[in-house]
Specification:
about 140 residues; alpha/beta; Ribosomal Protein L13p, Chain: A; three-stranded parallel beta sheet; 5 helices
Length: about 140
């Protein structure tokens, strides 16, 4: 008889999702994004499996007051291209923070997740707000 070391992954129905709150006030953007990405993927759980969506909900508040190290406000740019000739769009980080700081946090977390269908499902559970107020007042409740 052969020895089997394969452990069956947890079923989607048996997973319990918790709510986590991260206050971005004064936190460095990259470290905050790493913490949020880990919670979204569920890597802190003993039942973590990379191909099963076993992550939790993450609520980030005070995205407007996130801290950036070095000269990133002046040197970092967000680049996108429409696909057409001359369709390059370059947005400096400083202008993006003035327009919508939630997008800066969301992009930082999204780029730390794997590039697949599962990551897109996990990113839906990320909620970002500019101020202290948010509608998810009962944290650590059982998610549906």
């Amino acid at each position: 008889m052969s020895q089997k070391t394969y452990i069956h992954p947890p079923r989607q129905a048996a997973l319990e999702r918790r709510w986590h709150h991260i206050d971005a006030k004064g936190q460095v953007l990259g470290r905050l994004a790493t913490k949020a990405a880990t919670l979204l993927r569920g890597k802190q759980k003993p039942t973590y499996t990379d191909f099963v969506d076993c992550g939790d909900f993450v609520v980030v508040t005070n995205a407007k007051q996130v801290r950036l190290t070095g000269a990133k406000l002046d040197q970092k740019f967000y680049f996108s291209h429409s696909g057409y000739a001359g369709g390059a769009k370059v947005m400096p980080l400083r202008r993006q923070m003035e327009r919508d700081p939630r997008k800066v946090v969301m992009l930082a977390v999204r780029r730390m997740l794997p590039k697949n269908r599962l990551a897109r499902k996990q990113l839906v559970r990320l909620k970002i707000y500019n101020a202290d107020k948010h509608p998810h007042s009962i944290l650590n409740q059982k998610a549906k």
